[in-house]
Amino acid sequence: MVEGGMKCVKYLLFAFNFLFFLAGIGVIVVGSIVETKFREDYDFFGTKFNAVSIFLIVVGSIIFLLGFFGCCGAWKENYCMTMTFAVLLLLIFVLEIAGGIAGFVFRKQVSFT
């Protein structure tokens, strides 16, 4: 059990991860609505429009899982869930750095049309 200032950190970690948890659910819902409402328009827009809804659902699921591990790890003070949360955050950070480096290296090959 935590005491003093660490109790505040515990509740702040829970609160912010709960917001991410809700945001993940929101992104999943938006992706699902786009997928179901515009299904008949896929013939007109093509497959690029379909990819957006699938992308929203996948990103929402990742945010949902990340928020879940953070919430439960903070609330229950579970070492395994907290470490899973930390490793997933580190993985996302490394992927963002790799994406930035790849964007810088291939910046000449990007067309703006």
Note down, in words, how this protein is organized.
By secondary structure, the protein is mainly α. The chain is 83% helix and 0% strand. Helix 3 packs antiparallel against helix 4. The longest helix is centred in the N-terminal third of the chain and has 33 residues. The protein starts with a helix and ends in an 8-residue tail after the last helix. The model has no long low-confidence stretch (mean pLDDT 86).
Q: Unreliable segments (pLDDT under 50, ≥5 consecutive)? A: none
Number of distinct helices:
4
The level of helicity is: over 70%
Quaternary class: single chain
Query: How many β-strand runs?
Result: 0
Structural class, by secondary structure, is mainly alpha
Distance from N terminus to C terminus (CA atoms, Å) equals 57 Å
Work out the strand percent: under 5%
What string, H for helix and E for strand, traces the elements in order?
HHHH
> How is the biggest beta sheet arranged?
none
Shape: flat
Output the radius of gyration: 19 Å
* Rounded average pLDDT: 86
Summarize the structure.
With 113 residues, the protein is mainly alpha-helical. It has 4 helices and no strands.
Give me the secondary-structure topology.
Layout lengths: L4 H33 L4 H4 L1 H30 L2 H27 L8
Helix pairs in contact: 1-3, 3-4
What descriptors fit this protein?
113 residues, 0% strand, flat
